[in-house]
Amino acid sequence: MGLKRRTRRCLNEVFQSGAITCLICIASVKRTQAVWSCVGCYCIFHIPCIQKWAKDSIFLVSSVTDEDFGKKEHPWPCPKCRYEYSPQQTPCRYYCYCGKEVDPAPDPWLLPHSCGQVCDREFKPPCGHRCLLLCHPGPCPPCPKMVSVSCLCGKAAPVPRRCSNKGWNCGKTCSRTLPCRIHTCTHTCHAGVCEPCPRVSVQKCVCGRSSAQRQCASPLWHCDQACGRPLPCGNHTCERVCHAGACGECPRAGNRTCPCGKSKCALPCTADVPTCGDTCDKKLDCGLHSCSMRCHKGPCETCRQAVTKQCRCERHTKRMPCHKEYLCDSKCNKTRSCNRHPCKRKCCPGNCPPCDLSCGRMLGCRNHKCPSVCHPGSCYPCPEVVQVKCACGSTSLSVPCGREKSTKPPRCKELCRNPPSCHHPSRERHRCHFGTCPVCKQVCQLPLPGCTHLCPAPCHDQVLLKSNQRAPLAGPWEQPAAPAFECKALPCPPCQVPIPTACLGEHEVSPVQCHARGPFSCGRPCGRTLTCSNHSCSLELSKVLTGSAGLWTAGKECEHCEESCSKPRPSGCPHPCTLPCHRGNCPPCTQMIRQRCHCKITNLYIECLKLTAADEEARKLLTSCKNQCPKQLRCGHRCKELCHAGDCVENCSQRVKVKCPCKRIKKEENLVLCDDICKKLQRKYAEAELEAFEKRQKGKRKKNRRNTEVEAEEGAWLKYRKYLLVPVCGILLAVGAFYLLQVN
Fold first, then answer.
1. Record's Gene Ontology CC terms (predicted)?
2. With contact defined as beta carbons under 8 Å apart, do 440 and 428 qualify?
3. For a Cys-Cys bond, which of 76, 109, 355, 480 suits 336, CB 3.0-4.6 Å?
């Protein structure tokens, strides 16, 4: 049913599209041309083409098989399905599909070659109903009538069903008596005659002498023993092998003739018939002469009479025994009916047989050679039908051989069966096609290296990349070739899945991409207390190796405190701590402070610790040089006390001589004044001092000029040495610090 439906649908589509082809002339069938349809395969042919095909087929068959050419009627086959037709069934008129209308007029609103009337053809297999569709090509559909029928075995009540599918099974056991008349059918409800009984039973042969285990379905069997029963004559026994019924009369009873048949005699069955002694006179095998022997038993001998015989080609004669045929050795030079090959048959009578060689010429399809017997004229079209299949082979289209290259493959509705070229177990669902499959767009789903997540990127096993390998150009006249592409498998991208991760200092939890997972820096300063316990790490947060010291203790990666000690100094101590930043209290300051004594003459060096720790009285004693105070009292005498702080006590008790202002006159009086002599001496001294001063001033000018020149020559290093030593020392300190850091 499904095959008929597909055939009818295919024919309708082909007719509507105008793509149907005559397999004889390999030309398209137009709606205005007269056609004929095969009843076996429903293939369409032009009327002139099928008439010529039928005529040539009958001619070829009769020329090969008939000795008397053209006197027998041979059938001719359909070019496609080889359904045979008699010569009387050769089409001579153009009918519609249903056969009601002769030469149907083309109507653009109807199917080509259709009359447009109701088909009214009887369904096959016949059911009593007729097709109600309009005149159509191909087979009629199954009968759609509803009939009331019983089951196949006839036990169930009638049920309404489609006439085309009216046979149904009730599911009960058949139980009809089998031909063995012993057992019943054990199969479920079925149509037709029950199957032979499959059981085994003891059965006798036809003559009843032997018994054997045999199938109930074959009760009649013959043993190998001769019958052996006495015949009615009483002299002979039946020689027939195991048989049923009477043995019959004795084959030697009644009137019998001699071997030559000329004399008759009535003898008992025990006596043999004698020969008559006359000439045999039976016709020999040659048909011309009679047997010359006396009446004898058995076949006659071959004819040995010598006669003059003419050969079959009537060119030569020869005297020879009658039973032999005379064939000369001359070969026929005539050309056979194919007009290609000579006869070459020995002693040919003139009616040369048709050429029995194979034609072997290449057919129009260019794929096969003509399989027919060698013939005149052009060869028939290739009878082969080629299946143009889709890529998977499940959908095919039958086309005449030779048109498979120009025929577009059918569109397949099946899914592509090509194995995947990537790591996926199956490809994406797409239709069957030729060529390479499209690039896989499924998610990769491969486990990423270093984590348990799956790759979310599209499949990248077959990625087209531009090839960098290009052939060098032969010269500037050669055009560069188009860039070549090659398929490569790319590695999976890094895992982008966010993983909640705590920063190195556990300040915050942020999502970090899986491929970069692990403690990360949040950008904040480390903040861990350095080993000095005074400062914290100011670097960006780094990983700290926690140990017994605790989580907040600085690790090896933290910076080392390079600052000086910044702890507050004891009151009064102006010196910074000599140690770098350290834990605990600073050590006592042991530096010496240069302090002037109270009299401002002597520089004293005192330990800073003693100076800052002393009270007011002790500080006064420490800053005293223990010498006599050099200050003068108002009276002009020196203070008698040791070096002390504050003003001297005005308690001078020393008796002294008072001099005049020029200090020439000395008297123990309260006031002594200079006299005239003192004044004259003062004037002389003043003039002498003035002259001496002027002389000294002149000498100093010369000496200062010489000192300035010496200083200009020798003072460069002394002037700039502190500026040179400071950067050199700084560079040396930086190099030493860098070396220590590298070692740590």
1. nucleus
2. yes
3. 355
In this structure, are residues 586 and 578 in contact, taking their beta carbons and an 8 Å threshold? no
Instruction: Give burial (CB, 10 Å; 0-12/13-18/19+) of 476.
Output: exposed
Nearest residue to 43 (alpha-carbon basis) of 73, 68, 17, 7: 7
Query: Please, is 153 exposed, middle or buried when counting C-beta atoms within 10 Å of its C-beta (0-12, 13-18, 19+)?
Result: buried
Burial of 665 (0-12, 13-18, 19+ CB in 10 A): middle
Q: Residue with structure tokens 């003509």?
A: 370
In the block, residue with structure tokens 């042919």: 45
Across 458-587, the runs of DSSP E, i.e. the strands, are: 463-466, 485-488, 498-502, 509-513
Residue 118: per-residue pLDDT: 92
Cβ 417 vs Cβ 452: under 8 Å: no
Rounded alpha-carbon distances, angstroms, from residue 461 to 420, 464, 467, 491, 492: 11, 10, 16, 8, 9
Taking the C-alpha atoms of residue 697 and residue 703, their distance in angstroms, rounded to an integer, is 10
Give the model confidence (pLDDT) of 63-75 as tens digits: 655 454 445 678 8
**Which residues 6+ apart lie within 8 Å of 407 measured at CB?**
388, 397, 399
Q: How is residue 397 written in tokens?
A: 């289209």
DSSP annotation of 642: B
3-state SS assignment for residue 27: strand
The C-alpha R_g of the chain, in whole angstroms, comes to: 72
Strands 463-466 and 485-488, by their bridges, are antiparallel
- Cα–Cα distance, 141 to 1 (Å, whole number): 8
How many CB atoms sit inside 10 A of residue 564's CB?
A: 11
Cα dihedral value 620, 625, 628, 633, nearest 10: -50
Question: Distance of CA 1 to CAs 5, 165, 603, 637, Å?
Answer: 6, 10, 136, 157
Distance separating alpha carbons of residues 49 and 97, to the nearest angstrom: 18
For residue 432, CA distances in Å to 366, 415, 421, 422, 541 come to: 29, 5, 16, 18, 60
Q: Has residue 99 got a pLDDT over 60?
A: yes
Closest CA to 209 of 196, 190, 224: 224
- Provide φ and ψ at 193, rounded to 5°: -75, 145
**H/E element holding 712?**
helix 676-743
Q: Which helix (H) or strand (E) holds 201?
A: strand 200-204
Q: Mind listing the pLDDT tens digit for each residue in 265-287?
A: 877 777 777 888 888 888 888 88
For residue 433, the tally of other CB atoms under 10 A from its CB is: 16
Residue 233 sits at the vertex; the CA angle it makes with 232 and 235, to the nearest 5 degrees, is 120
Measured distance CA(635)–CA(217) in Å, rounded: 178
Residue 208 in contact with residue 221, Cβ under 8 Å? no
Could you tell me the two tokens for 494? 């890094």
Q: How many CA atoms lie within 13 A of 430 on its CB side?
A: 16
Of the candidates 193, 213, 210, which has an alpha carbon nearest to the alpha carbon of residue 202?
213
